[in-house]
Amino acid sequence: MTDWRGNVETGVSAWLGGDERPASHNGVTRGSVRGDPAPEDLLVDVETAGPDADPESVARKILLDQLTGRARTRSELADKLRQRRVPEEIAIRLLDRFTEVGLVDDAAFARQWVESRQSSRGLARRALADELRRKGVDAEVVREAVDEVDAGAEEAAARTLVRKKLPSLRRVDSATATRRLVAMLARKGYPPGLAFAVVREELGAVPHDDAHDDPHDTT
């Protein structure tokens, strides 16, 4: 059997079969690159689908629509089915089946999320863990995913963030620059010790005007 675990597009194709793909999936990625559902999809739920509609088929379509475009966690999908008034027993059965075949894989989702958010946003492990928990990922799965972020890579990401911000702070005094930079790193989930160490070293490499404090500083 083809191993599509964690590969949503391949998994959806395998589930549906080449000739059985409904119109909403034939060569069209629904919603935006973030996987947001198309407007018409928002109207589909078990109660509005009509008296002749099979609730399980409607629920399956909701799940496939949600998964076309990007992966989602089991908790996110369960919430969506609940919003669309899918009976709980049907939701559990379908989610178990989707998990079994790899269309829903929280561990793969967590790894991909950490890699993407750490590289694109420079988030530290704490912030990444917070985001995954908000998406309903199990605590142990979260821990395993964020533990894959190397401490050296985390420090390098912090330095990159600081260096990008430094040009806008060249005309403020070092105390103000330190407060702003440390606050920025804190929002990204970096611990205080690492944040202060990185900021101190990076500030030491550039000149700052210590004679004039920034009158607009509110940090």
TrEMBL record:
Pfam family, one: RecX_HTH3
Main subcellular localisation: cytoplasm
Record-level GO BP terms: regulation of DNA repair
Region of interest: Disordered: 1-39
Cellular location(s): Cytoplasm
GO cellular component terms attached to this protein's record: cytoplasm
Sorted UniProt keywords: Cytoplasm
Location of the RecX second three-helical domain: 105-145
Cleaved signal peptide residues: none
Domain RecX first three-helical: 59-97
InterPro entries in the cross-refs: RecX_HTH_1st, RecX_HTH_2nd, RecX_HTH_3rd, Regulatory_RecX, WH-like_DNA-bd_sf
Domain of life, source organism: Bacteria
UniProt domain RecX third three-helical: residue ranges: 154-199
Family assignment from sequence similarity: Belongs to the RecX family.
Function: Modulates RecA activity.
Protein name: Regulatory protein RecX
Source species: Nocardioides agariphilus
